Amino acid sequence: MNIRFLETFVWVARLRSFSSAADKLCTTQAAVSNRIATLERDLGVRLFERDLRNVSLTPQGERALAQAETIVRLTEELRLGVSEASSLRGRIAIGTIDSIVYAWLPKLIEAVKATYPDVDIDLTVDNSLTVSRLLLDRQVNLALIAGPVLAAECSNIDLCTYQCHWFAAPHLGLHGRRLSLVDIVANPIFAFSKGSQPHQNVLRLMESAGLDANLNLVRILNSNSLATITRLARDGMGVAVLPTEVAREMVERGELMQLDVDADLPPLHLHAVYREEPGSTLPALIARMAAQVAKAEDAATLTPSANARRNQIRIASHTK
């Protein structure tokens, strides 16, 4: 049985279109039709119902699809397993968020280029909601985001967890004492873009404290640019909600202070997400590489020297 014909079957089933499958496989619609006809003849069943507008799986096609996907995936894994990593070629579109860019994305890109020198990377940086939509629309192949993405065709790999805290410039005078949310909302709050996890977490805290953001009692300013948020916070324009790892260097330089607030922010859970698709293992390989890089970075911050530095920062953040 021809593996290429099985891959064609999987793509037609996923895209519900012979012409779309032909475009995806860089062939003609006639070639796709011939492959499916041959496969149906070999299997002795009809895989698709066709009319002028729609293509749908028959009951036999539904049963065959899962097995065909497994065979195609295992074939690709076998091919990669016996070949040199350096021989892997192609292009991958990665969508990610600022929090990862500021933390360990450069190390991931270095690792990809060292392992797969002939793989090119297209990078898109936006908020998690936008990147997840790009993934589902097949405009990016791999999403590194605050996830997961709960779609049947998507695989999610845990990357790491970022603790989030309140930060402000030293000259605002908010550090060195215990603060309530009422103290915090006397200043504008920077909490990433609307709909993001940090933004939703802030809204829930305000609601639980009886503070109504819709009556202008709380000024939440939104931006999907971490550079913008941190610049405004460092300039004393308000209080920022940031992952600790993102703010660490700014705290070390004395540009921001971590505040002692009686309202804890939930952590940010980061995931690598990719679509399970036939003949495409590069996103899965780089997703696993991203998990290794993220865990290595997390472990590096827990070394004795790093812990000592954190203790110094914590002491400094509680003293004027």
TrEMBL record:
Occurrences of domain HTH lysR-type (ranges): 1-58
Top-level taxon of the source organism: Bacteria
UniProt-listed Pfam families: HTH_1, LysR_substrate
Transmembrane segments: none
Gene Ontology molecular function: any one: DNA-binding transcription factor activity
Keywords: DNA-binding, Transcription, Transcription regulation
Similarity remark: Belongs to the LysR transcriptional regulatory family.
Protein name in UniProt: Transcriptional regulator
Organism: Azorhizobium caulinodans (strain ATCC 43989 / DSM 5975 / JCM 20966 / LMG 6465 / NBRC 14845 / NCIMB 13405 / ORS 571)
Recorded name of the encoding gene: lysR
